[in-house]
Automatic annotation (TrEMBL):
EC number: 3.1.2.2
Thioesterase domain mapped to chain residues: 148-220
Membrane topology: Peripheral membrane protein
Organism: Molossus molossus
Subcellular location: Cell projection, Ruffle membrane; Cytoplasm; Mitochondrion inner membrane; Mitochondrion intermembrane space
GO cellular component terms given for this protein: mitochondrial inner membrane; mitochondrial intermembrane space; ruffle membrane
Protein name according to UniProt: Acyl-coenzyme A thioesterase THEM4
InterPro entries linked to this entry: HotDog_dom_sf, THEM4/THEM5_acyl-CoA_thioest, Thioestr_dom
Amino acid sequence: MLRSCAARLHAVGALRGLRGCARPWARSSGPAPEFFHEDHSLPKPSWSKDMRLLFDQFMKKCEDGSWIHLPSYNYTLFQRSQDISAFIHAYLPTASKLINEEKLLQAKIFTRNFEDGLGFEYVMFYNDVEKRVVCVFEGGPYLQGMPGCLHGGAIATMIDATVGTSAMIAEGIVMTANLNINFKRPVPLCSVVLINSQLDKIEGRKLFISCNVQSVDEKTLYTEATSLFIKLDPEKQV
Ligand SMILES: CCCCCCCCCCCCCCCC(=O)SCCNC(=O)CCNC(=O)[C@H](O)C(C)(C)COP(=O)(O)OP(=O)(O)OC[C@H]1O[C@@H](n2cnc3c(N)ncnc32)[C@H](O)[C@@H]1OP(=O)(O)O
């Protein structure tokens, strides 16, 4: 069990471009530039007290191995242009005709490219036995929708990132096919919330993952969501 979990996390690491991880579609290998390796899921001066407290609580749970802290980077999906190109041609051949590969070199994960404390601050933890990913998330002032509230698109983004991480850990290269969200209460801007995801079932290439967003004291249920992810099949020519 531990070995397969480690293998899947290794695969997620590969998706995130960790140094030394195998990338089966990659045509080249070699060291990545250092800036790829700053882990943005570690405490920063901009984090609130609640964010730090929850980070510490989950890190404590990691000590016996039941939970795993998932690192997070802000760089492009892959380290070299050949890798990007190989990935897109293997998995997204139809889309590849419309993609400007030069621009791809500037691509970054958009949740990780605001100045510290202004946008998406988050850290995720994974429990293999329970098939859960929990995200501790604080949406900064640049994510405002209605005055004083977090933009619904920002909430949807973080739900997608959380359930997407769960799907990638389970099955590797996946895409969101369906994301169904009920916004039940507005999320106060700059408050910390817990995004709890649960892998419900896998049927062939389909992964069903549910999710909720709660206040830190778990008294307020802000959002509920269900999602469907599809494991990409290179034979299908999406
Ligand atoms: C690789 C990532 C690296 C990331 C690096 C790390 C960074 C950290 C990131 C954190 C995580 C972020 C996660 C973000 C993830 C996105 O946001 S992805 C972006 C948004 N999604 C998209 O653009 C997907 C667009 N859609 C598609 O490309 C295609 O529809 C799909 C989803 C690939 C499926 O196409 P397909 O492989 O041809 O599947 P198809 O054979 O049609 O259907 C397979 C089955 O699924 C069912 N199905 C398909 N679609 C649906 C649907 N919408 N509703 C219900 N059933 C459906 C079919 O009915 C079929 O069922 P069965 O007949 O087998 O029972």
